[in-house]
Amino acid sequence: MQLGMIGLGRMGANMVCRLVKADHECVVYDRTPQAVKNLQAQGAIGTFSVEDFVARLAAPRAVWLMVPAAAVDDMLATLIPLLQPGDIIIDGGNSYYRDDIRRGTEAKSKQIHYVDVGTSGGVAGLDRGYCLMVGGEKEVVQHLAPIFAALAPGIDAAPPTAGRKKPGSTAEQGYLHCGPQGAGHFVKMVHNGIEYGIMGAYAEGLNVLRNANVGKQKSDSDAETTPLRNPEFYQYELDLPEITELWRRGSVIGSWLLDLTASALLTDPKLESYAGRVSDSGEGRWTVAAAIDEAVPVPILSAALFERFSSRGEAGFSDKVLSAMRHGFGGHVEKTAKQ
Amino acid sequence: MQLGMIGLGRMGANMVCRLVKADHECVVYDRTPQAVKNLQAQGAIGTFSVEDFVARLAAPRAVWLMVPAAAVDDMLATLIPLLQPGDIIIDGGNSYYRDDIRRGTEAKSKQIHYVDVGTSGGVAGLDRGYCLMVGGEKEVVQHLAPIFAALAPGIDAAPPTAGRKKPGSTAEQGYLHCGPQGAGHFVKMVHNGIEYGIMGAYAEGLNVLRNANVGKQKSDSDAETTPLRNPEFYQYELDLPEITELWRRGSVIGSWLLDLTASALLTDPKLESYAGRVSDSGEGRWTVAAAIDEAVPVPILSAALFERFSSRGEAGFSDKVLSAMRHGFGGHVEKTAKQ
Amino acid sequence: MQLGMIGLGRMGANMVCRLVKADHECVVYDRTPQAVKNLQAQGAIGTFSVEDFVARLAAPRAVWLMVPAAAVDDMLATLIPLLQPGDIIIDGGNSYYRDDIRRGTEAKSKQIHYVDVGTSGGVAGLDRGYCLMVGGEKEVVQHLAPIFAALAPGIDAAPPTAGRKKPGSTAEQGYLHCGPQGAGHFVKMVHNGIEYGIMGAYAEGLNVLRNANVGKQKSDSDAETTPLRNPEFYQYELDLPEITELWRRGSVIGSWLLDLTASALLTDPKLESYAGRVSDSGEGRWTVAAAIDEAVPVPILSAALFERFSSRGEAGFSDKVLSAMRHGFGGHVEKTAKQ
Amino acid sequence: MQLGMIGLGRMGANMVCRLVKADHECVVYDRTPQAVKNLQAQGAIGTFSVEDFVARLAAPRAVWLMVPAAAVDDMLATLIPLLQPGDIIIDGGNSYYRDDIRRGTEAKSKQIHYVDVGTSGGVAGLDRGYCLMVGGEKEVVQHLAPIFAALAPGIDAAPPTAGRKKPGSTAEQGYLHCGPQGAGHFVKMVHNGIEYGIMGAYAEGLNVLRNANVGKQKSDSDAETTPLRNPEFYQYELDLPEITELWRRGSVIGSWLLDLTASALLTDPKLESYAGRVSDSGEGRWTVAAAIDEAVPVPILSAALFERFSSRGEAGFSDKVLSAMRHGFGGHVEKTAKQ
């Protein structure tokens, strides 16, 4: 079927390629003309204005937005006046689900359908397919099924779950209608919250392995340093690239994130090409905020979020307060950083 | 080659089956005669006393212990006097790596080799193979390579890591000599610490999804209850069995642990067959303790550990202290549990 | 000066008593007539309808609301139509500071002033005085200074801070104009967030002390139980009522919350009169939510919040997910609770 | 009575001054002669060798060690051969309680008594008195009561706990016999663990207050930055020195640590004289380790410990792992630090 795609960055462009390969007709637009031209070369129909983009789509139109969350409202303000009743807007980016609810209500007042799609898969999605978490009206979601099916990884992407017999379900294909407007991005939000936690678990564990040799280091013996009581138990020089490769086969903690970690450590065993300033793109925050509203304890997901904040220096003032208190009650003077 | 196996529980028995299938000769012993007989039927050589077990092995003997961590020292006390210089003991259970160092030193004084193997794979290992993290002397580990190779999943168990060219390494086969005595169990310990963190991340996220309908519930409006400010944002009835199945394909958080979760939710969508009292088997504790010795921050791994403690009621007294303080300063009276 | 007080619960009633003692004229109202009568006996002017209440106040009126946060909007809807331009409303309860901003804007449209006051002190405030965190217009706050001064503890409530010379400041008296509308409740919100953290720190530490005798207990020796490696180090029977009393004098951790804890443990050493279900009244949640918006890491404040959620059973489903996973990969069966 | 003091640093010297003022005879030694001379000027009997120190004490001698934890064993090796059966050694420093148990057993084999004293109070102890947590044999502790009473703050240091009638107890004086050897340092260890948690709670809360103005800042709008959704709610410029001074009077979170914080913020409102590298001196680590052995959940105490580790850069490798993963799945490139 025909799909219009607005936003041809890393994600949008790859998705168009995947759709074109599956013989869907893609009309594309991006504010950067070169991005459009690149996809024309892949078989997409390029357009260079939103007006032209809309004109090239047959009603009822299906327009997929793959733009930064902060740019969605502006794009909708441009787009909606050009659309007709019965047309469909799909927000496939990382929007906050509460915005979906608001936008869906606004679109509905103009008889335009609004579908939110949480899209996971990253740069590998071109080959592996995308995991799609969909929210919106049932009939509209069903209408878009051919698109979702082409983007999703398909049933062979994972071994079957024993005993599963749900013929009507599309979850095994890699896409799912999760509920009404916002449900797709809600599920994606939590997906990313979990992702933060899993990533942090690997990161912390690898840091413990990396420091298994602390018993070999000479430590300061002053009142500001806690001596290591049993240096004989910390004499290991562990090979992290080999261990992460090892765990990929047969261990309980095998995962795609581990595959990526093994790959990164293979080329840069000490990760010297990174500074360790870790961004967060909102979903982790929103997941914790939702958990608080729901009174659900999420010590792991919040710890993962706060680790990222701290990696960017945001704990600095807290730390100074601690040093000031220690100076106050004990006369303790801060040690300088290791050279 | 020939291997002796002591301890024919879930793990030990399956490992023997896997070895026998790979045409290794297995001499087996368990204090429960029926466990021995079961494996005789699978092609193993059964023995019914430790003496007989040792007698049936050709020197230099390779004896693999697969017994509970708490039972290893007793078994060694029985076994070592029956062995000869040059024989090899392999502890494949969940021993604390510090015990390996002690036991290895004791064994060495009798010219017996000691190898520690962290074994991951669980009940699925019979088919999937076991991920083996090995510590000990290099030559001894190499001597045992045929056994490790038969137990391990093999190179096809995971897609190749792009660019990897380490022909001498066995990590791609699923086993690895990690370092001297204790290194195998140290790596396994951290593996399990990570496992706790990953499991907790999924668990917390699923709890957030499950409570996405709190806006539909009528809540108390008293001074002891925080009202939900925006019930309209928590109106989703999410289908956890479908969502976990969905995430198995193409998402960033795909993993074997997720596969197991999807499978559990398929047969018991509300997990009513569980009480939620979560045991911990030591490695999570030891990982956090190692992190503290190394001064490595592990907020996620510790949160995962403490969640398990709390699930067993261990926070109860802390909670009472909080209630007592609240009563003291604010006259607050505890609410009773929901009926 | 004259003050009207609406809401004569624990907090409101005590505040009126304190004001009356300081020779301020208090006009009071509560929907429960008996509460009004009780304060009439203390020297307050009782009223039995909001209309009568307003009529008894001289313009410009100063009306202090001390009602549950959830009841403020309803009370304002009744009250505001009865007021005149220039009158002042003070919300002294536990409102969310974002509501202050909204309500202040609404009141301003009717030329009514709106002041938010975070009030700390609990049931002890009658004698100790109340710590007041105030937000609103500068002139209006200054107009109310006699009221704030009478409610606050006064300068003698704490030893002077060495070197402090800020004659214009009222902080030493125990009340402070923190900023524009909402600033008072923002500061109070964070105050309570800190309170949760401090309370949790004591609670956890006391739990560690209480269990210093675990080495004396016989523990199970099965694969689901981690054995205590060094029972000889956990042989202490510590006397918590005595230790908390001790810490009140000269220790670094002396505080009013510790005083309350010592008092609670004196009368109920095992805290058997509590079930350990700990409510939270919103501020802890809002503090963490604000921290997330600000990208400030708050692992302690969030841990304290989540401990409260967990104390009320909210981690139950997470825990079941963990048990289900453990069953999936290891065949582990949950242990039943200790009898 | 007579007491010998070895170790005349900040703590030891102040304690001698306090004892001399209370008319106790103090024989003092320090490896730095000037430290001895300083105390001679205060009325202590100075000695310049351990031999001379011991010779100046009357049997049964009472020798108080106030040296760094790492120096205790060396000092004992010198001291014990010079002592006689019936003499008493008191370790008043920050030793690990497990060392007390070992040292007590060794001392006992020579009929020397060993007492461990956890000493809280810091540099303020000279005036305020010291809170003393004591472990050891009952008779020996009673023999030392005059010394403990002189060092402790005394009953007037805190208001009485209502209803308390325990005439035999010394807790109200500020010292307590907590139990057998190690009990004093065990209680002090947990005291410090709690201290870390309380300090961290204040520090985090103050960081949230400090950033209440983030809505005024211009933020980046790129895919690596989460936009602040409601800048209008973060427009406050809060005065931390005033707020901490305020909270000292009448609030629920008043404490000595808050007094110190207010004092530090008074002289350095932005704490620019600190780098924020926070040391830990062992007790926080040991408290968490004890909690793990006891299966007591301590999410707050551990978060406080890990914040300190992170303040010293120890999370750096973890953070790099996260960045590497993000690059792997999403092609995300790290943002550079704010200039």
What does this structure look like?
The structure is a homotetramer of 339-residue chains. The first copy, chain A, is α/β, with parallel strands linked by helices and 339 residues long. Chain A contains 14 helices and eight strands. Chain A has two domains: 172 residues, NAD(P)-binding Rossmann-like Domain (Rossmann fold); 129 residues, N-(1-d-carboxylethyl)-l-norvaline Dehydrogenase, domain 2 (Orthogonal Bundle), CATH 1.10.1040. Helix content of chain A is 45%, strand content 12%. In chain A, strands 3-2-1-4-5-6-7-8 form an eight-stranded mixed beta sheet, sandwiched between helices. The longest helix of chain A has 28 residues. The radius of gyration of chain A is 25 Å and the shape is elongated. The relative contact order of chain A is 0.08. The interface between A and B is large, with 107 and 107 residues. Chains A, B, C, D: Belongs to the 6-phosphogluconate dehydrogenase family. Chains A, B, C, D: Pathway: Carbohydrate degradation; pentose phosphate pathway.
